[in-house]
Amino acid sequence: MELYQRFLTEKTDANGMLESVDFHAPESFNFGFDVVDYYGTEEPDRRAMIWVGSDGEEERIFTFGDMMKLSARAANYFKALGITKGDRVLLVLRRHWEFWPTIVALHKIGAITIPATDQLKEKDFVYRFDAAGVKAIVCTTSGTVIDEAEGACERCPQVTIKVSVGEKKEGWHHFGSEWEAFSDIYPRPSDGSAPMRDELMLMYFTSGTTAYPKIAAHEHTYALAHFLTAKWWHNVRKDGIHFTVAETGWGKAVWGKLYGQWLCGACVFTYDFERFDQEKLLGMIEKYRITTFCAPPTIYRFMIKADLSKHDLSSLEYITTAGEAVNPEVFNQMKTATGLTLMEGFGQTETTLTIANLVGMTPKPGSMGKPTPIYKLRIVSPDGSNTPMGEAGEICVDISEGRPYGLFREYYGDPENTKSVMHDGLYHTGDTAYYDEDGYLFFVGRTDDIIKSSGYRIGPFEIESVLMEHPAVLECAVTGVPDPTRGQVVKATIVLTAGYEASDELAKEIQHFVKELTAPYKYPRVVEFVKELPKTISGKIRRTELRK
To answer: Which residue ranges does the record assign to the AMP-binding enzyme C-terminal domain (predicted)?
Structure first.
């Protein structure tokens, strides 16, 4: 029996495609004890992670036996510092190997982990410390982020425990020189204090493209729901090596570098790079014989522009993508360049994998795939009815019979915002899509991004997809701007590829290009060329700022 079969039952059809997943985890389920320590005891020599430092020279291989002991040592250390069950702990650890034993240790203690990016500034830390009631922070000394955090700590007295990872910093505990003194045995508590399945385990601050970030709070069952992410989307296998390109401050890291992969007993690969370099990344795939790979479309765009013939990518068996909708151009060029079909997936900070092209499916270029068996989805019009085929509506999760595994419990400390998205028996994602005759879903945009022009409802993504096919367009964002006659008209804000210069002639050429490839009413009547697009710290385009 595979480990995951202790906690769930999967059902497949006659063709071997996934039909349903039924969870039956015990009330005491805890990822640290029931997954990491299980493998650490039963298969201690099984590889859990290959970690490579930023220079590409330093390499460490961690087995599950290592992770069991290291997380136990970290748990004993953190408890000695005063971290207890229910405490909120902020982690800013980039791609350092210390993230893995640290997060597993906090799960074992029952503390609530809040991963965060090293791009935060002092005011961002202050907001997060106050909003989540953070008691402790574990922070890298790489770069200047710890100085930003220190400034925030001086303004937030509730943060009483500060731990640095890397160099020693005055006024902070030092992880590297202190934790080794502690025992590497940490059994599950038997006094009733052990963290339980339905208690909070993990929090993520949302991207905050239109307002202050909200705090999506997840229970311990969230880890189990990523079984589907790993086995049926990433297609990991025990003797393979999976590589998801994500920094630990973002939710995609636990999607692809922790929960589902380790639940399936697979090894993850982590490259702790300082700056992204597609040649180095391709070199890692070649050197370590990566078998399954996941990255956002932006990474694939860089890969396509590189000379792939210089690298032996024959070990790659499966490639996936998420984080933003995939332009058909990226899909087609990756197929041409590698022979592999790019399998897209969709989810949110509030969910696990919600829509996807799962193993065995034949994807359609530009489609996110179909609803995954964990979630019962509806595509809903503004009046609450289901939309007909081909008509855009809001993607909603049916919660009338209870929340499925993987869906967040609440926006922590924010009942008003929680109620605004969970009502009428639905969780409202705020994203829109339409489905075709085969049930495949196509992303349209955020509900507040829809452009209403002369009676037409226009989604920005389909126009952006066409624009990205023009060689002059490096990045773009489509928004609506007021128009006295049409209500709104389509505007394209464009960052040009090197070698192209902004001009009225180029704008007209691009407008004509869009008219030729999609319905004429969708073409951008306004074109603006800019040096860069405004983005959130997670890299998402701030369309609200463009609309202003």
So the answer is: 462-540
Of the candidates 91, 97, 148, 89, the one whose C-alpha atom is nearest the C-alpha of residue 117 is 91
β-strand pairing of 456-458 with 426-435:
unpaired
Query: Could you please report the per-residue DSSP string of 198-246?
Result: TSEEEEEE---SSSSPPEEEEETHHHHHHHIIIIIII---TTSEEEE--
Q: How many CB atoms lie within 10 A of CB 380?
A: 18
Count CB-CB contacts under 10 A for residue 182.
17
Q: How many CB atoms lie within 10 A of CB 438?
A: 10
Distance between CA atoms of 502 and 496, rounded to whole angstroms? 8
What are the CB-based long-range contacts (under 8 Å, 24+) for 499-503? 500/471, 500/472, 502/529
Tokens 């085969």 belong to residue:
438
What are the percentages of helix, strand and coil residues in the chain, rounded to 5? Answer: 30, 25, 40
Q: Count the neighbouring beta carbons within 10 Å of the beta carbon of residue 8.
A: 18
Distance separating alpha carbons of residues 248 and 365, to the nearest angstrom: 29
Give every CB contact of residue 251 below 8 A, 6+ residues apart in sequence: 115, 204, 349
- Judge whether residue 300 has pLDDT over 90: no
Is 206 exposed, middle or buried, given 0-12, 13-18 or 19+ CB atoms closer than 10 A? Answer: buried
Task: Return the amino acid letter for 45.
Answer: D
Query: Position of tokens 């574990």?
Result: 138
* Cα 79 to Cα 98: distance, rounded to the nearest angstrom: 17
Q: What are the pLDDT digits (tens) for 366-410?
A: 899 999 999 999 999 989 999 999 999 999 999 999 999 999 999
- Copy the structure tokens of residue 322: 């998420």
Higher model confidence: residue 518 or residue 526?
Answer: 526
| Whole-number Å distance between alpha carbons of 265 and 531 | 45
pLDDT, position 544: 74
Query: Which amino acid is it at 171?
Result: G
CB 108 within 8 A of CB 199: no
**Res 208: pLDDT:** 55
The answer to whether the beta carbons of residues 443 and 464 sit under 8 Å apart is no
Q: Residue 344 and residue 356: Cα distance in Å, rounded?
A: 6
Inter-residue contact 281 to 271 (CB < 8 Å): yes
The DSSP secondary structure of 409-467, one letter per residue, reads -EETT-HHHHHHHEETTEEEEEEEEEE-TTS-EEEEEEGGG-EEETTEEE-HHHHHHHH
Look at residues 429, 78, 25 and name the one whose alpha carbon lies nearest to residue 259.
25
Which of 161-170, 487-496, 529-538 has the least mean pLDDT? 529-538
Mean pLDDT, to the nearest integer, of 201-221?
A: 85
The conformation of residue 342, written as its DSSP 8-state character, comes to E
